[in-house]
Amino acid sequence: MKKKMISALLCVSMAAGILSGCGGGTEPAQTQARDTKVLETTEAAAETEKAEETQAKASETTGAVTEKTTEKKTEKESTGGDANAGDIGGKLVVWEHTAQFEAPLKAVIEGFNKKYPNVEIEYQIKTSDQYYNLLQTAMQAGETPDLFWTNGTATTNLEAYVKQGLLMDLTDKVDFSLYDGTNAMSLVKVDDKTYASPTAEVGGRAVFYNKDIFKELGLEVPKTFSEFESALASINEAGYLPISFSASDPWAILFQFEPVLAATALDWIQGYVDTGEAKVNDPKVVAAYDKMLEWADKGYYGPGYTGVDESGALLAFSKGDAAMCIEGTWNIQTIQENNPELNFGAFQLPTEDGKRPFVGTSSVGFSVSKDTENPDAALAFVNYFSSLEGQTAWIKSLDSIPCTDKIVSENEVINEIAQFDIQTESYYNILGYLEKEGESPRNVWEEDQTKVFTKGMTAQEFTDELAALTR
After folding, report:
1. What total number of domains does the chain contain?
2. What is the signed CA dihedral for 211, 214, 218, 224, rounded to 10 degrees?
3. Is residue 295 part of a domain?
4. Which of 384, 410, 450, 463 has the fewest Cβ atoms within 10 Å of its own Cβ atom?
5. pLDDT exceeds 80 at position 415
């Protein structure tokens, strides 16, 4: 493969910012691409996969897979269906916070419309950096969408909306049995009541790598952290960009920082898991940030990486201009859509003693406005979204990791990601668990994270700022 010089890579990577691929960027062109309104009334829906056939007989409640037999089926026996579906109609408006979830949302809507053809769904894709501001404006204007995404209890927004009486209590109105035995419900409860639907996705982080570049340079998947750093040096010397990275987006930074922290300070994370206590400005946390800054100084991210947005970084990897990209597992689909011919895989960043930690978090679907003018249709949608059929469509469209073995992935990259030794906690979540009453370290994290890489703050100053807001 012909070597590509880093200066050329930068041009490709920064130009990529005009394309929408996944969430978080703040470039004007990307904003235009994401802030769209699409009217969905399609009646087409993908048939339930053959793997679900074996599960059909195990469940007859809402959320069961449609039983694939020659016997006559009622709507209640079909996944997420309702015997009176024909009586439910009207219009729903759904808000999603980033373009990376547009495809799975469309897949769910298509399946829902097959069962509820009289419900018209209009979905709107917003930008992640402005989402909550836009939602607050809509709420104040009395124009709250019928269903809308929040980050659940990972941030303070959901709890605030509950206190303001803006959300419908879904506790006894939606069948969440799909999530039994998982941690999925942990992000959607306030005072033991459920105010949002989770997804079956485990939002993890992984190192995506170009198998052709690795083969050309005689590299193998690293078994230790030292081997990983050695690979970075070899890739850089060969003229390839080692890691495509967006330091203009706090979330893109997080999705790389957390695997680095897990690989270099797993004992610190597990110490929190065991005791519920941790100093978020611990020297090991600071060292993880400093390690990333060291890689930047060595040119492993290429010049100008602080001006590249997340979509640009993903596109640079997708087009073969970078050997690796450390990102969220939900971006598999984006990478494959950017370049269907890309020969890539994934691995977990290893510790020095060879452990493969996986930073995985649950994710949230949608809340229902308490003031929705179409509560029957809204609840029908949430029930379908929370069903096995609905979440199978969601997960398979995302090509992401499911939290339940009822949903089976056929994607080789997903199976490679799942090769880990221990699932560990997210630094972002730890900030929330340890926040002082009345404080929001995660909001401050989001505001100031990028300053560490633009030299506006040192890693020590940044983590000290967070520590002041935590117990």
Report:
1. 2
2. -110
3. yes
4. 410
5. yes
pLDDT of residue 15: 37
Among 185, 122, 206, CA closest to 381: 122
Return the exposure string of 188-199: e unless at least 16 CB atoms fall within 10 Å of the residue's CB, then b: bbbeeebbbbbb
* CA 409 to each of CA 98, 192, 335, 413: distance values in angstroms, whole numbers, following the listed order: 23, 32, 17, 9
In whole angstroms, what is the distance from residue 358 CA to residue 236 CA?
26
Locus of tokens 């193998």: 220
> Beta strands 90-96 and 147-148: pairing type?
parallel
Helix (H, G, I), strand (E, B) or coil at 402: strand
Residue 167 structure tokens? 């959300």
Q: Do 412 and 446 belong to one domain?
A: no
Residue 442: partners with Cβ closer than 8 Å, 6 or more residues away: 154, 155, 428, 431, 432, 435
Distance, in Å, from the CA atom of 267 to the CA atom of 261, rounded to the nearest integer, reads 10
Evaluate if residue 43 carries a pLDDT over 60.
no
Nearest to 197 by CA among 17, 36, 78, 62: 62
pLDDT of 174-187, one tens digit each?
Answer: 999 999 988 789 89
Query: For the whole model, what pTM was predicted?
Result: 0.65
* Domain boundary residue, one of 403, 418, 433: 418
Is residue 309 in some structural domain? yes
220 and 170 fall within a common domain: no
Residue 171 and residue 212 in one domain: no
Looking at the DSSP assignment, which residues form a beta bridge with residue 148? 95, 367
Look at the alpha carbons of 165, 167, 171, 173 in this order and tell me if their dihedral is positive or negative.
positive
**433: its two tokens:** 């668990």
| Distance in Å from the first CA to the final CA of the chain | 52
Q: How far apart are CA 466 and CA 469, in angstroms?
A: 5
Q: What is the pLDDT of residue 446?
A: 95
Pairwise CA distance, residues 153 & 190, whole Å: 8
Q: Which of 304, 385, 334 is nearest to 33 (CA)?
A: 334
pLDDT of residue 30: 29
Query: What's the token pair of residue 226?
Result: 């030292």
Domain encompassing residue 194: 90-202+362-418
What DSSP element (H or E) covers 408? none
CATH assignment at residue 148: 3.40.190.10
Q: What does the alpha-carbon distance between residue 252 and residue 245 come to, in Å, rounded to a whole number?
A: 8
Confidence tier at 154 by pLDDT (50, 70, 90) = confident
- Residue 441 included in any domain: yes
Cα gap 218→64, rounded to integer Å = 48
Which of 375, 396, 418 is the endpoint of a domain? 418
* Three-class secondary structure of residue 367 per DSSP: strand
Is 299 strand, coil or helix?
A: coil
- Answer yes or no: is 57 within a domain: no
Report the pLDDT averaged over residues 231-257: 98
